[in-house]
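User: Quick one: structure for sequence A, then sequence B.

Assistant: Sequence A:
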Amino acid sequence: MSKVVMYSTQVCPYCQMAERLLKSRGVEHIEKVLIDRDPARREEMMTRTGRRTVPQVFIGETHVGGYDDLSALDRAGGLMPLLEVA
């Protein structure tokens, strides 16, 4: 299964929904980067994604986006193939 990294904050409901969706698709480990604890990581997230909001989800090297993007990808059938990359 592909590595999943999620930029998040400690109290973000959309981050929690993204985590639930990923776990329901078989993801056992999500590397969470808590940008409210480390401001330098917020800058890193904004540089990598061009976005300021959380969550920002990466599957492997692919930037999926936020929760809305993640759920739309899942509905379109694109999430599982991305997760299952060997």
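Sequence B:
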Amino acid sequence: MRPGRALSVLLLLAACGGDDGGTSPIDGAPPGDAGVSDAPVDDCYRERLDAENGDAAEPTGLVVGGVARPICGQVDVDHAGAGGALDRDRFAVTLVTPAAVVVRLSAPGSAGLERLQLAITTATGAAIGARVIGGLGVAIVQLPAGAHELSVTALGNSAGAIPYRLVIAPDDPTARCPLATVNPDYREADESAAGHRANDMVQVRGAPLVTSATPSTSDRPEDTQRAVSSVGRVVLAGTSADVAPAGDDYHDRDAFAVYTGQTTNFLELRAGWASAADLDVLVFEAEHPDEPLGVPTATVAGELVVTSVKPATLYWVWIGGSTRSAALPASYQLAVCGRELTPDAP
């Protein structure tokens, strides 16, 4: 696989700044010796069993319903875990009824770590994860009723403990980057002369999900010349062709090169198609085909992926026709929406 060409792109500047100033003091409050009633309410479940919760999930007693449930903990430097982890914390939560939830991990002090990973293991044993980038990791998953596990795994080294805030809350996936009948901003080039292999870039196997560069030296991502601002949307369109798989679990594979805007640190991707096909969407930082970001979720018609990203960075948006498909070819639209999120204070 030939490295992608440098794209000449005018990065879109985000229009939404933010005032992150602190809460104003109460007018007339005395400057010192405030009473207990003046203290801020701590809504977090506080980690209590750091020495043990790397081996078994810490029972939090939290029941997830119609409100967010926060957990506050920290990556410690003296509780090395299995597989060379610096620290691993596991927490048990319960859902009374099936629900779509969003799990958000905020760790503003984690930049020096080699990796910080969020994982959700369901009552049925299925797992979904999200990598923390820029202090923020987000995952969306449809959970059945029952007990589930949230885990935080840190790799690398740190001079001191790193506080984090982990929040699980109800979510409406259908409201994220909804597809609309619009003319696409970019349409896939005709690659039939190349046997529909001109823009593959990444081969994908699962489960478990394993990705790698294709063996080709001639494929390259679609040069969209598009950037996604923190309040913007780019709509891509193409066709997933009916061709034989080339060494993995997918027929046609299409990759699009898209930049993030100057302040864009979070992407929502929504794909839709009309036929009986089964398409999957993944995101990769350019030239990193072995590290997929985000995991597709079937909480909407079509496909939805969310992931933290780096601002002003080139990414490959990848979509493939799975061998599970009942019918190909399939024409698709793929919306890529940008946002600017601020990690929560632990």
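The domain at 186-339 is CATH 2.60.120.380 (Jelly Rolls). Residues 117 and 131 are 5 Å apart (CA to CA).

User: Thanks, that's what I needed.
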